[in-house]
Amino acid sequence: MPYDDMSTAMPPSLADPGSNAFTEPSIDTLIPTFRFMVHRKLRRKAHGQYRKHSTRRYIFSSIVIALFMTLIGIGSQKLELATSWPELALIVILLIIMIYIVVKVSILIRWCFYWLVLATLVLFAINRGSLFDQIKIGIGSSAQPENKLAMKAKIVLIVLGLVEGITLAGVVLMRVAYPRIVLRAKWLNCKRWWRIRPTPQPLSKSANYKTVMFSYVSWDPDDYRLERNSVSYVGEFDKFGRPHGLGEWTDHTYTGEALQGIWKDGLPDGPFKSQEYGTGNAFNNLRIGFCKNSTDKDTSTGFKAARDPNGLSYGAATVECSVSGKFFHHLPFVRIIGEGVLRSELEQQAKEDLEVPSVTMTYPLSFLSTFTESIQSRPSIRGSFHDASLKKSLPLSKSIVVRYTDRGIFIPGYIRSRHRGDPNEVVIRRMYPPSLAIEGQQPVVIDTNELGSEQLSSGSQGQGPTLLLPTIHASGSGTSSASDDSETGTVNRLSILDYPLGATPETAKSRQDRQDKQNRAQRSLDKERKKRLNQTGLIIDGWRQVLDVDGRTASAQAASRAGYEALVFVHGYNCPLTYGIARLGQLLSLGEFPPYIKPFVFSWPSSTTMGYFTAKAVGCSDDVAKDLRQFISDLREAGFRRVHMLVHSMGARIVLSALRKGYFDGVFAEREVVDLDSSVNSTEGSKTALRTRTTIRYRDSMPVNRGELPSWQGTSTGSLGGDDPSQPIQLATFTLLNPDTDLQTFLEDDYWMLSKYCAHMTLYADEHDGALFWSETLLRTKSLGRHPRTLVYGPTGEVLDVDVIDTTSLDVNIHSIRHNFFNLNRMLVDDLYDVVVLGRRAREREGRLSSRWTFSDAGTEDGEVYTFLCAPSYVVNK
Fold it and tell me: Where is the composition biased (Basic and acidic residues) (predicted)?
């Protein structure tokens, strides 16, 4: 069944409602959705789960099967040995092929092998130690006893064939035919087949959404019997009574799903989160944008790599990934929801849109809503104590990242809502839901938030802890927040106060005091605060959270300029579009990246396995470099002011080639030069010989709004002007994942050019990378991703400001090639989160990384390299 084409997979009753009149949600309107959810359950079972690879198991199985095949050969007494070496070699090859086939069949369909072993033993018993002699005699022979034995042997073979056929037919029926029937068969009477019957409505209903419940009969794998279980859907519906919008589906069978997220026309569209009810296996569905410039299909690559002559195309996709419990073979699963549209067409549409200013990135951005944004922009599904007429509630964050820069405080995902107060001070308050006291039939809301506001206005700092944020580092630190010309001892004061929003009536001394507090609370509760009555989290005075960027309005662009960041993944060679999306989706799902980071995949013509040199030539061409520059420019025009780049394998060669050719000039913001030092000379006897070279130290240029600059910084914004889309975009982080690029070229040219734009560079390298080994063999040059110990110092002795992470010691979720595991290894996923989201350098990640000094063959120090603090997978407690 072509599962990736969900429109054709829908049951006819779901795809064609047949009426435009409003239909009340009921069991009948939910039957097509129920069939699709059962199909998802069957599909997971059919594809199966990943199992632990056991070398001993495969060796043991091979020995057993080899002995079994030898036993069959011994039983064939008339079999003559080959008289020549070619014939003997052919027999050996055929025997190996038969063993391989039997091993595969025994792993996938074990019962087929079991029936074969049983039939062989029966034949040996019937024919007295042989397999074929008695069968060859035939019925017409004069030896009557032998005729009976031959007949018995033939019956055994016939029965074996029937049993094997029934077994294979059963597997095909359950794994292929039955899922198709469940999803698409018009003749299937669902109510009769699953014995569906209505269930009494629950006592507690959601105050904001409708609820539909029913029960059906399903197979229980634990008790090996049929049992009745309930199914419920709570959420939004369309006019045909189908799930549409925010909703939660709960199937109480063992492998049924509890799925919460966004639905469309009766199907889970994503983003959503799901978990099997009995097993605990969990899944995430998220959305990723893509930029493509190749003629390849979305799901495959061609040997003749070619750039699309029509230029770039933009689109978006959803990707569902396993995140907990057992992982399934068919996941990650990518589905294109926004077909690639040529940039030229999008640009023409943008020019024709006179009502709302738009850009070419409007189309992919319109799809990139996240699970957090989708859930928080609506009332709670579980119900609410306040009036259901409030359609939306403003979200509150549970965690906030505060970054200090040379140009002030920066909070990703937030924008200043006012221009008063100290720009170097941020007040973060914890908000509780209000306590309710019932007097008669009216809820009484008691709010003490006014007391907190009065204390804040008086400047008291004694109500909570105060965190001092230094704005300077030691000379030559090289971090993204380094400021060498700041005043000594300057700090930014971050006050974190704890003010609960509610208080119980018992805390007041008298009824009059409670009434006064209630009156003050009622006067201060405006419309915005009423929408927050059922929420908990953190709020920031003077800042508002940026959410629900749909890419269609000018305000969405302004919001992106304020707090949204782009994460661009450039894949390696032999990587189709869907594969790159799946790899990035798995990383984001396991890492739980925040919603203000919008992911994109840049898909270039990467050729096939045998087209390495073709991919290298096309990828490093000027046309691909121009397309990459155009893509970054479109992100800048869409309002993004910070971009993070993850480049893997040959993707590093593509990006660095465009960098050397100067295609990023004017696109990425250049860092400000704060010091030129050309007097660094070598010292006799030093471990590290530093030769004369001009050393340039930079300071980050942080994009901010012109009206929000602190007074001590003046009115100049340097090279960036926050709201001006023509200004360059900041390259916040640049991460090299097992890069397939020349080591010497990076040391001599690439690093020095890249340091002009980016202050936070990270390299993940593996000495045992098999793919890069073959790359070095073909190109006869050292690869950057295979030599972590020679990268810390440049060719003339300068210290390179690159965090070098050696992943050679990692051995969990890593295949034998050791080239593509950044999205599965837990240590690496968490480390990438710290790099991209928190902006932490390697020396700040002491809880995960251990630094060590490496030495060259001459005995001199090569520099500092980091390794992960983890034990090998084979080390266990005794």
Answer: 508-528
Nearest residue to 556 via CA among 726, 408, 368: 368
On the question of pLDDT at 103 being above 80, the answer is no
For residues 715 and 815, membership in a common domain is answered with yes
Alpha helices in 609-665 (DSSP H): 612-619, 622-637, 650-660
Helix (H, G, I), strand (E, B) or coil at 259: strand
At residue 407, the pLDDT reads 61
The answer to whether residues 46 and 179 touch, using CB atoms and an 8 Å cutoff, is yes
Task: Classify residue 308: in a domain, yes or no.
Answer: no
Q: What is the pTM assigned to this prediction?
A: 0.78
Above 60 in pLDDT, residue 460? no
Rounded Cα gap, residues 503 and 447, in angstroms:
6
List 569's β-bridge partners, or say none: 601, 646
- pLDDT at res. 225: 81
Cβ–Cβ under 8 Å, residues 811 and 872: yes
pLDDT in tens, 296-341: 999 988 888 889 999 999 999 999 999 999 999 999 999 999 999 9
Same domain? 596 vs 706: yes
Compute the half-sphere exposure of residue 597: CA atoms within 13 Å on the CB side of its CA. Answer: 24
Quick one: pLDDT at residue 19?
53
For residue 132, being part of any structural domain is answered with yes
Same domain, 642 and 754: yes
Q: How much is the pLDDT for 325? A: 93
b/e per residue 848-859 (b: at least 16 CB within 10 A): bbeeeebeeeee
Joined tokens for residue 469: 């944020």
- Percent of the chain topping pLDDT 70: 63
Query: Could you tell me the residue range of the domain that residue 74 belongs to?
Result: 55-168
651 and 615 assigned to the same domain: yes
The Cα 741–Cα 793 span in angstroms is: 17
